[in-house]
Design a protein that fits this description.
- It is a multi-pass membrane protein.
- With 468 residues, this protein is mainly α.
- The protein has one domain: MFS general substrate transporter like domains (Growth Hormone, Chain: A, Up-down Bundle).
- Helix content is 79%, strand content 0%.
- It has 24 helices and no strands.
- It has helices at 3-7, 11-20, 22-41, 54-81, 84-103, 108-136, 142-166, 169-176, 179-187, 194-199, 203-214, 221-239, 245-250, 252-269, 273-278, 280-285, 293-297, 299-318, 320-346, 353-371, 374-382, 385-417, 419-439, 449-456.
Length: 468
């Protein structure tokens, strides 16, 4: 460690990372709201004045995923034109509208509208937040800072499950409505990404922001070197033609990275964990356990939080590939056990109820620690600066659209043919995902863009462009 590094600190980076991840925490609250609310919405005590049908609940649940496609498109335009910080502010406004819409007299229309705003903001959680954190973080703690989002989401889900199980419907909404407003006010004071500041010609401000983030003086050699690196990168970026998707597909490392991430996102968004998360209370109600499904469901976000904590503490040691591959493999085993249990029930054999509950805990732990966060961490690391914002936006759009299809298909398959058909489908997807991670996905831990592009081009001698 150099003397410059020893003088600095990382606490500002941690503080700002936690601050911007309050939006992800709010998204976790919104994710967790659906599961306990589903039972209430389909009961005679529904706040809509009548029990909602299974089809209506399916649309309320899945509309967020479909809206995420629109949200991702909005943020693609926002973050490059107005900055990463503006993207986070827009997310906070959308999240405020979510709770406001749920506080008005409940109906299928208002609930779907609220979920649309939730989905749009959620797209930013997986697009803007990882990008912003990557661009403010120093390399030595990049993995840990990037993993905070998964922990924030899982804690949000846990808290909502707690409130949903013990508090009145509208009491919960009044408690959480102020959070995105507070986040908005606090984020107004947050710094813009240094990379974006250099891009728009605000070099002096970028220098001050970097010094603030690193805990160093603006004249420190380390800060000056980092600013010069950003300036060289920006000059190169401005010297090349406008990068289109045709350019991406003509450039081998970019094309290969994009195709790999498309496949990873497809299996990530269709692996079944998101469906279980949205229908936890209903699935546990069918498990045969005698205690309250809402109380049982508290174990789900607890294990999701556990998975997130494990990832934060191990991601910079074990790497992204091992954690993600293991998560998909364990999820495949969990769904296989749940499918077999469901088939036995069809033929009059009752498997112990704890099997389904335990398997759900396993797959949600894997979702919180691997399946959910790692694809977005990897895509922020594998893409060059020139293409990062655009391609991450397209991939987030794909993720949300696929999640929407997954929720609709899961609901329809389960209602028509039984849960075992959906579970077996998820087994196949997770087995394919495990093979994809093992055989195709490159490890990004501790590697520069130059090293990754060299690996993606399979040893091509021509030196690749290096932008971080």
């Amino acid at each position: 460690m150099t003397s410059s590094q020893s003088k600095g600190h990382t606490r500002v980076q941690w503080a700002i990372t936690i601050l911007c991840n309050l939006t992800v925490f709010t998204y976790g609250l919104q994710c967790g709201w659906m599961s306990p609310a589903t039972v209430l919405l389909q009961s005679p005590d529904s706040p809509t004045g009548r029990p909602l049908s299974a089809s209506e609940v399916s649309w309320v649940a899945s509309s967020a995923s479909l809206a995420g496609v629109l949200g991702a498109f909005v943020f693609i335009k926002t973050v490059d034109r107005f900055g990463r910080k503006m993207g986070i502010l827009v997310m906070s406004v959308l999240q405020t509208l979510v709770w406001v819409m749920k506080l008005v007299p409940a109906s299928t229309t208002t609930l779907i509208t609220a979920r649309v705003f939730s989905g749009m903001a959620g797209a930013g959680c997986f697009h803007v937040v990882p990008m912003y954190v990557k661009e403010i973080a120093q390399d030595s703690i990049r993995g840990s800072l990037s993993s905070v989002a998964a922990l924030a989401q899982s804690i949000g889900i846990l808290i909502m499950f707690l409130m949903g199980g013990f508090l009145d419907y509208y009491t919960v909404l009044w408690i959480v409505v102020g959070l995105p407003i507070i986040t908005l006010a606090m984020c107004l004071k947050a710094p813009e990404s240094p990379s974006y500041l250099v891009k728009v010609g605000k070099t002096e401000e970028a220098t001050r922001v970097l010094a603030f983030l690193r805990g160093l003086d603006v004249e420190d050699k380390e800060i000056q070197n980092e600013v010069e690196t950003l300036k060289r990168e920006d000059e190169y970026y401005k010297s090349i033609p406008n990068i289109s998707m045709a350019t991406v597909f003509k450039t081998k490392p970019w094309r290969k990275a994009f195709i790999i991430m498309i496949l990873v996102i497809l299996v990530h968004a269709s692996n079944g964990s998101f469906s279980v998360l949205n229908y936890t209370a209903t699935l546990l109600q069918d498990s045969g356990m005698n205690i309250s499904p809402e109380l049982q469901s508290l174990s789900i976000p607890i294990f999701m939080t556990l998975g997130s904590i494990i990832t934060i503490t191990t991601i910079d040691k074990l790497g992204r590939k091992l954690i993600l591959g293991s998560s998909f493999a364990a999820t495949a085993v969990a769904f296989a056990c749940m499918a077999i249990s469901s088939v036995l029930k069809m033929y009059g054999w009752m498997a112990p109820a704890w099997i389904n509950v335990t398997m759900m805990m396993v797959l949600i732990c894997c979702y919180g620690g691997g399946v959910c966060p790692l694809p977005f961490i990897i895509m922020a690391e594998i893409f060059n600066f020139q293409i990062r914002a655009k391609l991450m936006g397209y991939l987030v759009m794909l993720a949300w659209f696929t999640s929407f299809i997954q929720l609709v298909v899961f609901s329809e398959l389960t209602n028509r043919f039984g849960a075992h058909v959906s579970f077996y489908m998820f087994v196949v997807i997770n087995v394919l995902a495990t093979a994809l991670v093992i055989l195709v996905l490159p490890e990004t831990k501790g590697k520069s863009i130059e090293e990754l592009e060299k690996e993606l081009t399979e040893g091509r001698r021509k030196k690749c462009v290096t932008m971080s």
